[in-house]
Amino acid sequence: MIKVHGALARITRNHGWLYTSHSFSFGGYFDPGNTEFGPLRVFNDDRVQPLTGFGFHKHEEMEIVTVVLRGELQHEDTLGNKTVMRAGEVQRMTAGTGIEHSETNPSASEEVELLQLWFTPAEEGLAPSYEQASYDLGTRRNEWVPVVTGRQRETAEGADGGGVKPARIHQDLTLYLAELEPGHTLTFSQKPGRRMYVFVIEGSAAADGAYKLSRRDAARITEQEGLDLHTETGARLMLIDLP
Question: pLDDT of 36-94, one tens digit each?
């Protein structure tokens, strides 16, 4: 079953320094029917203005994934990490028993555009940790590239076949990205009982020939063991394989 959630159906807030769209209940927005999709709890589409950002704040018992789409994002945390992320990089932060961090835009002139996702971990009480990984979709067009995974198999394949070593996450999921050229179809085979979450970062695509997905649209997919995504225009896609 495929359920499309259009970009315009998201809750959008303009805080001046931050323009954000929430796909699930978050902050002051609460819908009891839209709090999660499997372990996926938060999917925020953010644009942060120059020299602003999220100051130090605390998280516990959450796996947080950030994908930078454009610009630069500076990360700092109480583990001693201080890094700058750019497009083509992804971070995974395990909040575990507790971590404080900040995410800011160091540029004086350019905004940073990013996607931030929160997942519940497979187990609680983990030690906080942080990891960054890089990828290049331009060298692996028209295929699913795993950039975050909780499975050893995808990690090994990424390291040995394609030059991408995904960030590790403490949950039975894999987050894929794909750069699909015009006129191409990309298929994903799923195991029974699992979910798929598809998000169109750029461009447009049709899911199984019947469900049109435009820029920033999402599809929540259950009870099916395969998915075809076709684009006439070209598309940058995210697919999350979830329990």
Answer: 999 999 999 999 999 999 999 999 999 999 999 999 999 999 999 999 999 999 999 99
Q: Is the pLDDT of residue 153 over 60?
A: no
Specify whether the CB–CB gap between 11 and 21 falls below 8 A.
yes
CATH number at 144 reads 2.60.120.10
Closest CA to 92 of 188, 145, 165, 7: 165
State how far the Cα of 200 lies from the Cα of 238, in Å rounded to an integer: 6
As a whole number of angstroms, the distance between CA 133 and CA 22 comes to: 25
Q: In the beta sheet, which residues pair with residue 26?
A: 29
Helix, strand, coil shares of the chain as percentages rounded to 5?
5, 55, 40
Range of the domain at 42: 2-242
Environment class of 72 (CB within 10 Å of its CB; exposed 0-12, middle 13-18, buried 19+): middle
Q: Are 144 and 186 in contact (CB under 8 A)?
A: yes
Strand-pairing partners, residue 242, are 195
User: Which of 103, 19, 104, 112 has its CA nearest to residue 64?
Assistant: 103
171 Cβ partners below 8 Å, 6+ apart? Answer: 39, 63, 119, 120, 121, 122, 150, 243
For the stretch 188-233, pLDDT in tens is: 999 999 999 999 999 999 999 999 999 999 999 999 999 999 999 9
* The total number of structural domains that make up the chain: 1
Strands (E), 107-184: 112-119, 129-134, 145-149, 167-168, 174-180
